[in-house]
Amino acid sequence: MPKILLQPKIIFAICLGASVLPFSEYKVVEIGSRIGSGFCGKLLCGFGAEVILVEDTVDNYLRHLGPFPDVVDPEKSGLFGYLHAGKKSLHVNRRNVHELDELVCSADILIFGTASVYSQKETELFDRLSKSHNLLISIHISPYGMTGPYSKYAGTELTSNALSGITQRMGKPGRPPLTMPLAQAGFQAGYAGASGAACALIQRDTANHGDIVEVSEAEAMATVHAGYAVTRFQRAGILDKRAGHRLSNLPYPQTVLPCSDGYVELNTPEGSQWKRLLQMMGSPEWSKEERYRSRMKNSRSPMAEELDNKFKEWLKDYTKEDFYKLCREFEVPSGPVRTVDEIVKDDQLLSRDFFTSIRFHDGERYLVPGSGCSLSKTPAKRDLLVPRKGSVSEQINSAERNLLKSGSLAKEVASVRSSAGPLQGLRVLDMGWVWA
Question: What is the pLDDT of residues 236-292, one digit of tens each?
């Protein structure tokens, strides 16, 4: 039986009955107002890290994006609250680099989200702060990365999506492409940053040094589809194109169609599933015609439009829930397109206690999505308080910062193996077959 080597932090958690969250020993300083940097900090905070959000004299622009419960109030932004609940807000003039130096010197992790417009001063600030001490892990999140011909270009969600290649697949044929909704490039970059931080912490325990984790929002977004689209192009020369409410170059149906009270998604990648879908419809006569035998031909015009119309005619007599019940009965992997008000009442999500809340200082609570993963012994924190701007500024002084330095950073690391990868020594058993 192979030996299992436990790090001191793991032994410490076991002794406490695994009540210590995975990042409980770590202090994080977060600078910037990107959604990517905010989400990265949120993930670490949710699993125990102490995250100090640095806010300058100018408001974090996310405080002004909303949504707001009624009037615009920088202290009541829903987006800011979702990203920063549980953190501590510290008012620091970013021109005072010595104060930032002192703050970062006591941190395990620095999260740095750049502005949308390139700034040489920001580049110099990150370069300075990332060298604060040898064990610091620095997460740099920007539209295109720190190097390359685009690194100094201005960047937004729109441009990051476009550069990733995913935009060219979205929208109707012959129309301009569409971008992904709801800041997906930023959120994917946040996931990448938090994952990189976890790997760098493992590496630090063995190599006795920190790392710079560089995250490009465009590259993070490209990983969402490139493993599928790029390999199809390289292996088969297939270039996916915009197909509106369908996915191109896949067997019919891969589409969204209207029903009596909304929309449903039809998806039958396997031939047996397609046959069960037709049985679910009552095995219509048209399904026996030779011209509809090839599902790949069915996925292209004009066949796709013909079949869409046949399914629309059938679906108009069914509600979303009626359709969903039939899909489960016939084992067809299709279902309803939920609206937000339906999602918050969904039996599956409610049974798993997926949703949590955030609290504002006036006592109001708002429902928000919970963690994307559930740890059985150390679940993410819930019902977190949204910080008011600079709410801990008066609580942090030089003496406290010196005490903070005696925390995890002062622990002696036993071995030095700088050439080892951050996950070396870990064994993973992959028994899945889906992309995730």
Answer: 888 888 888 988 888 999 999 999 999 999 999 999 999 999 999 999 999 999 988
Residues 88 and 52 sit within 8 Å (Cβ to Cβ): yes
Please tell me the total count of domains within the chain: 2
55 and 164 inside one domain: yes
Q: Are 27 and 50 in contact (CB under 8 A)?
A: yes
Q: The domain spanning residue 12 has which CATH number?
A: 3.40.50.10540
For residues 316 and 260, is the Cβ–Cβ distance under 8 A? yes
Measured distance CA(5)–CA(324) in Å, rounded: 48
Classify residue 16 as exposed, middle or buried by CB count within 10 Å of its CB (0-12, 13-18, 19+): exposed
Q: What is the DSSP secondary structure assignment for residue 251, as one 8-state letter? A: P
Indicate yes or no: pTM above 0.90. no
Please, which residues bridge with residue 358 across strands?
366, 384
Same domain for 145 and 14 = yes
Same domain, 358 and 323: no
CA 210 to CA 190: how far, in whole Å? 19
Q: How high is the pLDDT of residue 434?
A: 54
Taking residue 225's Cβ as centre, other Cβ atoms within 10 Å add up to 14
- Return the number of other C-beta atoms located less than 10 Å from residue 234's C-beta: 9
Amino acid, single-letter form, for residue 166: I
Which residue, chain included where needed, has tokens 């992790």? 109
Q: Which residues, 6 or more positions from 283, have their beta carbon under 8 angstroms from its beta carbon? A: none
Domain of residue 317, CATH code: 3.30.1540.10
Token pair 């436990």 is found at 6
Do 169 and 108 share a structural domain?
yes
Q: What is the DSSP string of 265-307?
A: EEE--SHHHHHHHHHHTT--GGGGSGGG--HHHHTSTTHHHHH
Claim to verify: residue 118 and residue 205 sit in the same structural domain? yes
**3-state DSSP assignment of residue 213:** strand
Same domain, 211 and 274: no
Range of the domain at 194: 8-224+354-410
Query: What is the per-residue pLDDT across 57-88, written as a single tens digit (0 to 9) for each?
Result: 777 889 998 899 989 999 999 999 999 999 99
Q: Is residue 123 part of a domain?
A: yes
